[in-house]
Amino acid sequence: MSSELMNRYPRVADLRHRARQRIPYFAWEYLDSGTGVDQCMQRNEEALAAITLDPQFMKGVFTPDLTTKLFGVPYAAPFGMSPVGLTALMWPRAEQILARTAAKHRLPYTLSTAATESPETIGPLTDGMGWFQLYPPRNVEIRRDLLQRASAEGFTTLLVTADVPAAGRRERQVRAGVRVPPRITPLMLWRCLLRPAWSWATLVAGSPRFRGLEKYVDGQDMQDMFSFLGTELGGSLDWEYLQGVRQEWDGPLVLKGVLDPAEAERAVAIGCDGIMVSNHGGRQFDGAPATITVLPHIVEAIGNRATILFDSGVRGGLDIARALALGADFVLLGRAFMYGVAALGRAGGDHVAEILKTDLENNMTQLGCGTLAELRQRRVRR
Q1: Strands 52-53 and 274-277
Q2: Is the pTM of this model over 0.70?
Q3: Catalytic residue among 17, 280, 297, 351
Q4: CA-based angle 94:99:100, to the nearest 5?
Q5: 105 included as an active-site residue
Q6: What percent of the chain has pLDDT over 70?
Q7: SS3 of 140, please?
Q8: pLDDT tens-digit profile of 113-143?
Q9: Which domains are assigned to the chain?
Q10: Which of 335, 340, 281 is nearest to 11 (CA)?
C-alpha cells in the first residue's frame, strides 16, 4: 500500500469522512445508519473505547506475529470481513473488490445471501478465503441449493444469521429515501450529480441487483424480487431449522448474532463449530447491549468447546486487540471495509487491511505482546 494513501488516510475514521464525500446521501445513510436513534451503534463504539489494557514493557525488539488458524485454515491476521448486503448501492462491484482483498491479504471475506454478486462470481476470486452468510430461506429446497452452490464455489465456512427475525426499520434510511433500484426523482438525480465518481461507476456497472438470488426469482423485476425477499428470507430460524442446516453443510458452521450465553451453549450442543457475538452492527434492535459487554459471558459459557467470533463497533486495530483480550478468537468488520471501498474504490479494501494490520501490530507492540496468545492473557480493565 502506498505511503501516500497511508499518510492521507491513516485511520478508518478518515476513510469514513472521505466516503461521505464520495457517495450520494441515500447510499451514505444505507451504509452508516443503525436503527431507532442509533443508540446501539453508539453504545458499541463507546463500550469498546471504555476497555483499557495493561501494557508490559522491557521486551526488547520484536515484531508481533498476527498469523492465526481458524477451523484449520491459516490466516494472515485475526480479523476478516463481515457480510454486508446490497454493497453495490454503496460502491459498484464492491464484493469483487473485497474478495480480491481477501485473496491478496489472506483474510476471510463473507459473502451475504443479499449480495449484489453471485457465489459463482465471488468464490473463485477469494482463492480459498471465502465464507458464506445465510439468511435462512423458508423454502428448504432453496436453502439446500444455496448451500450446495456456496460449497461448490469454495466457500469454506457458513455463518447462519440469527439476529434478523424481521427486517429492521432503519429510520435514517427511510428518511433518506433508500430504494433499490433507486427511484428516479429530481432530488435523487441532483444527489447523484453531486457525486460524479459514484454515478459514473454505477452507470458502467448497472443498477444494483441481487444476483445470488436471481436463480430463484426474476431479477429484472424488482417488485418480484422484493416480494421474494420479504416472504422467503428471514423469520424462519429456530433450533430445528439450524439442525437441518447442520446436516446439510459439511464445513464449519457459525451461528451469527448471539448475545445470550444459554443460546450459545445450545448452539454448540447441536453441532455449531463457532459462535459469533454480534448485534448486527446496531442495525436491528436499538435496545441491544454493546457486544463487547456480552463477549466475556459467552466466552465463560462456551470455554474451549467452540470458536468465538466477534463483530459490531470495531473501527481499528485497538478495538480488535480489545476483543481478542476479552476472549474472542477472531474479529470481523463490516462498515470499516465498506468505508474504504466507498472512499477509494478498488484500492479501498487493500488499504483498510493495511490500516488494521499496521494498527494491530503497533498496539501489540505498545502492550508488549509478541503473539496473539500473549494478547489474550493481557490484563483488561473496564
Answers
A1: unpaired
A2: yes
A3: 280
A4: 100
A5: no
A6: 97
A7: helix
A8: 999 999 999 999 999 999 999 999 999 999 9
A9: 3-381 (3.20.20.70)
A10: 340
